[in-house]
Amino acid sequence: MEPSGLYDWKDSEIQNRIEKYGYRYEEFGVYQRKFLIRRSEYDDGAANINGKIIDLDWRATESRMRYLSPYNLVIAAFANPLSNPAFDKTFEQIMNDILMGKASVEDLSRAVLDLPKRSFS
Fold first, then answer.
1. Which pLDDT band holds residue 111 (cuts at 50, 70, 90)?
2. Are 35 and 49 in contact (CB under 8 A)?
3. If phi over 0 gives left and psi between -120 and 50 gives alpha, with beta otherwise, what is residue 22?
4. What is the model's pLDDT at position 83?
5. 37: Cβ–Cβ under 8 A, 6 or more apart, which residues?
6. What pTM, to 2 d.p., does this model score?
7. What angle do CA 19, 21, 23 make, to 5 degrees?
8. 38, 6 in Cβ contact below 8 A?
9. What are phi and psi of 99, to 5 degrees?
10. Where is 12: in which H helix or E strand?
11. Got the DSSP string for 15-47?
């Protein structure tokens, strides 16, 4: 997805963040459903809109997050094999490799099936 244009990020900055975290996003606000404002303005409750400082009505302001790169997400039940801190680094690496085309969902599936099963006794 394209950036909102509120921030002056260089492509290299976006790419560096993707390499470090696996994805890149931006946060901003929408005032009165038509004005884009920076996240800092949203947090402050005031924004520069058309050259004027405006006190934002919180009822007319929404917070938004836009992913600028592909990202992935796994939804799992509580107390599942993925809830294993020893697997966190491997899991993150596989998820990032999937985004970069270096791994597949099948690779993740195999790794999860190798994890110890949780018992409820």
1. very high
2. yes
3. left
4. 85
5. 6, 28, 29, 30, 31, 47, 49, 56, 61
6. 0.72
7. 80
8. yes
9. -60, -35
10. helix 11-21
11. HHHHHHHS--EEEEEEETTTEEEEHHHHHHTEE
Q: Residue 36 in contact with residue 30, Cβ under 8 Å?
A: yes
Tell me: the pLDDT tens digits for 24-53? 999 999 999 999 999 999 999 999 999 999
Tallying the residues shown for the chain, one arrives at 121
Angle CA 29–34–39, to nearest 5: 15
Contact partners, residue 58, CB within 8 Å, separation at least 6: 45
Contact 95, 105 (CB under 8 A): no
Both structure tokens of 119: 């018992």
What's the pLDDT at 44? 97
- Which pLDDT band holds residue 105 (cuts at 50, 70, 90)? very high
